[in-house]
Amino acid sequence: MSTSSFYKYSPVYQDNTLDKEYSIVNLLNDQVTFSTRKNFNDLFDSKINLIKPTRKELKDLSRQLKTSKRTAFKNAFFGDDWKLKIKKFEKSIDKLFDDYLYYCVTNKNDSNLMWSHYASSHKGFCIEWDSNKIKAEEVKYQSQIPNFNLLDLMKTHVGLGDDAKVGLDIWQALRTKLDEWKYESEYRFQLNKANEHLIIKREEHFALVKCQPDWIKSIIWGCRTTERTKNYIKENLHFDVNFKQATESLSSIVITDEK
């Protein structure tokens, strides 16, 4: 599904300490927070059921290898402790997935639930991003966490797998959530190696990443955003941007240009 804009709901907890509100600090300093899956509020978000190969599958793969690679493969995955070796490989892959960084957005700016859950019950604001600048991809929702065969990764390591397909399968698995979160209509932007130079600060479960002001199309005030919050942002923002207002209308939220 194509969309011209992506949206990031942002909280404001106390308007008497606005200089310490991380969402405002990020906005004013041209930075965003990318998170690892360990930083997500949903325990099952990006969780993958890694399926271990059987002894027979390992032997079948080994037979396809040239002598030089076969010896290294057997040393890595065979022997009396082969199950422990597979477990160690599984943990290394799981750790690799834990290190991936994502910026999560949505294609909805009028979701009452999103305003309530992620923008301090409408006291925060929402950033409208240009989808031509933020190349986020749609999250898939399903009833169970996805499966992924470790054997497919092993094949790529020994030159027998389809690297591109395996990479796409992993990326799809890492942007899969359970059906109960479908209301978020989430998209996910992964920070790849080409963009690592934009990292300002890296912590264990998140990173601050540099962004450009012209990636932002507008800032949308929540229904309860205080005048103090609005004025503080307007006075300290160093670039021009459109401002919009969310308002309550019967049973829905309506977004209009600020008057």
Keywords for this structure?
259 residues, alpha+beta, 32% helix
Summarize the structure in words.
With 259 residues, the chain is an alpha+beta fold. The chain has a domain at 5-36 and 100-139 and 175-257. Helix content is 32%, strand content 27%. The protein contains eight helices and 15 strands. It has a five-stranded mixed sheet, with helices on one face. Strand 11 (199-202) and strand 12 form a beta hairpin. It is elongated. The mean pLDDT is 94.
How large is the radius of gyration? 22 Å
Order of helices and strands: EHEEHHHEHEEEEHHEEEEEHEE
Question: Widest sheet: strand order?
Answer: 1-5-13-14-15
How would you classify the helix and strand content by structural class? Answer: alpha+beta
Mean pLDDT: 94
Instruction: List low-confidence stretches.
Output: none
User: Helix count, per DSSP?
Assistant: 8
State the shape: elongated
Number of strands: 15
User: Sheet bearing the most strands, described?
Assistant: 5 strands, mixed
**Portion of residues within helices:** 25-40%
